[in-house]
Amino acid sequence: MKTNHIMLTALFITSAALLTPVLHAQQEACSTETAAGTYVVSCSGFTAAGPGGTLLPVHQLGLATGDRDGNFTGSTTVNIGGLILIPDAKVSGKATINPNCTGNITYNKGTPALLTVTFVVLREAKEIHGLVTDTGSVISCVLNRTSK
To answer: What is the C-alpha separation between 89 and 73, in angstroms, rounded?
Structure first.
């Protein structure tokens, strides 16, 4: 079973690496200016209940707005393990967006721990797909632009 999981993970990573240039060839160069706007944010996955803790399901839903300089602010409702634990989580951070439409952002979420997300900008910045890269979390996010 573990071998199948490792092979599936390797296949996914290889496929993503092979398809990434195709996705980028279909759109113009990206920047913080092209990604400026307001987005609906939906994140889901699992997060640890403390260092080395059990992974619990997590889902976030809210809005985020980015300016032409890459400064993002937002607010989400956070459900962990079936409970609304943070009804109005505020975040702020500065994004770095590369011309090939990849990027990252580290959010200050009002706690000592920061939230780091690696992402890809798609469809002329109408969508952003991200992955939380912090230890203890397996969370992916999709942002859909609602306005520029």
So the answer is: 11
- Which of 81, 99, 97, 110 has the alpha carbon at shortest distance from 143? 97
Q: Please tell me whether the overall predicted TM-score, pTM, comes out greater than 0.70 for this model.
A: yes
Confidence of residue 27 (pLDDT cuts 50, 70, 90): low
Q: Which of 129, 106, 115, 140 is nearest to 35 (CA)?
A: 129
In the chain, where the domains are located: 29-147
Q: And the tokens for 134?
A: 């912090």
| In contact, 142 and 42? CB cutoff 8 Å | yes
B/e letters for 83-103, b = 16+ CB within 10 Å, e = fewer, are eeebeebebebebebeebbeb
- How many whole angstroms separate alpha carbon 36 and alpha carbon 125? 8
CA–CA distance, 19 with 108 (Å, rounded to integer): 32
Task: List, in order, residues 6 or more apart from 1 with CB less than 8 Å away.
Answer: none
Quick one: fold of 29-147?
Answer: Lipocalin (2.40.128)
Tokens of 35: 């990604």
